[in-house]
């Protein structure tokens, strides 16, 4: 049964509004982190701190994640076509791949700089400026993190929420630069590159989490609790006697579902259709970010008739 459409216009408007909010969050984040990165890069240039360099590279990579996500949000607003019948929401998953690659590249660059400085120690100058830049990095990341998480939760974008949590982690790595500056101030020349290596490890931890989330999205994984909630909702729908398969997938920052419900074998086509529509309607109201559900009504097999016999060989 095709999804009912009495809320179609509202869904399209909501989708466009959520994408617009996501785009706004991305550009604000790009501006904030971009300014932070420029400030830190200037301090790196005249201080020679590789710990701050690692943090700067990480912040630059985090700022640049706005570009692929922005492209994905823009594509997600396009209407489905006969080739892309589900629309372009999965572009957000491809953006996730680009983001993971960018984070990986920043970790390699930060590690290389730290190892080189360990092999060839140098004094770090202008420690007060390094400390100030570290605090600026923390403040910039925390502000961006709060904004991304708030907007991500509002529009249901897992990618934007994950990006916000990533920015929050970056803020704490910025604070680690303070430890390097303190060690250098006490005369420990290796403090700065060692902190740079620790920041690289923190970046790798973020990389692992981001790669796991992107992998799960590419593999159509959803939170099992959503399936449990959907099954409970379907069973509570009047006329539903049982359930078959219940499947969900993310397309961008919206969910789609495919469900099989069992109805009375004596029900007419109109009655079965009504039950399926009621089930879909209940799901859309019960599951956050669910845009549409395809509900298939199966006759109750307890009468001994296999209503799927023609498909047995194909299954």
Automatic annotation (TrEMBL):
Gene3D superfamilies: Cation efflux protein transmembrane domain, Cation efflux protein, cytoplasmic domain
InterPro entries (UniProt xref): Cation_efflux, Cation_efflux_CTD, Cation_efflux_CTD_sf, Cation_efflux_TM, Cation_efflux_TMD_sf, CDF_Transporter
Coiled coil: none
Family annotation (SUPFAM superfamilies): Cation efflux protein cytoplasmic domain-like, Cation efflux protein transmembrane domain-like
Entry superkingdom: Bacteria
Compositionally biased spans, kind Basic and acidic residues: 297-309
Keywords of this entry: Membrane, Transmembrane, Transmembrane helix, Transport
Parts of the chain that traverse the membrane: 25-51, 57-75, 95-115, 127-149
Topology in the lipid bilayer: Multi-pass membrane protein
The family this protein is said to belong to: Belongs to the cation diffusion facilitator (CDF) transporter (TC 2.A.4) family.
Entry protein name: Cation diffusion facilitator family transporter
